[in-house]
Design a protein that fits this description.
It holds the Pfam family DDE_1. With about 140 residues, the protein is mainly α. It is built from eight helices and no strands.
């Protein structure tokens, strides 16, 4: 595996324990917009459909439309920037993420609280603006 990666210019990256929620590029730049775009698609469907049921016959269409909006090159590359993986920025992740704790549950709750204290949009209009592609490119 290492030889294949080296011969194909693939850099293998091992993430430190208990830091994946801060260092996962997809978590930081893709899944939040996907969730917002899926909600928009589902809300639109519920408002315009007579049936008002999201079932297995329509979920693929709704999810596919949301995926097309969220799966952009800008979102993908911004995930690596937001996590400090590329370009390398060791200051993106706070030092306490690397501290060993006797109480892993307490550390996990502190880490989650820290990540959720960013300026998250509250209204639907703020969400659309916040999750536009321009905001995910750092």
């Amino acid at each position: 595996m290492l030889e294949y990666g080296e011969s194909n210019n693939i850099i293998l990256l091992c993430l430190p324990s208990h830091t994946t929620q801060a260092l996962q590029p997809l978590d930081r730049s893709f899944f939040k917009p996907l969730k917002v775009y899926y909600k928009q698609e589902a809300d639109t469907f519920m408002m315009t459909s007579k049936d008002k049921n999201i079932n297995r016959n329509v979920i693929g269409k709704l999810f596919g439309a949301a995926w097309k909006k969220a799966a952009t090159l800008i979102n993908a590359s911004s995930g690596f920037s937001a996590t400090g993986i590329y370009p390398c920025n060791k200051h993106v992740v706070p030092d306490y993420f690397f501290q060993i704790s006797d109480n892993n549950e307490n550390l996990a709750s502190v880490m989650t609280a820290s990540l959720s204290q960013t300026d998250q949009p509250q209204t639907e209009e703020q969400q659309k603006q916040f999750y536009s592609e321009e905001n995910f490119f750092f």
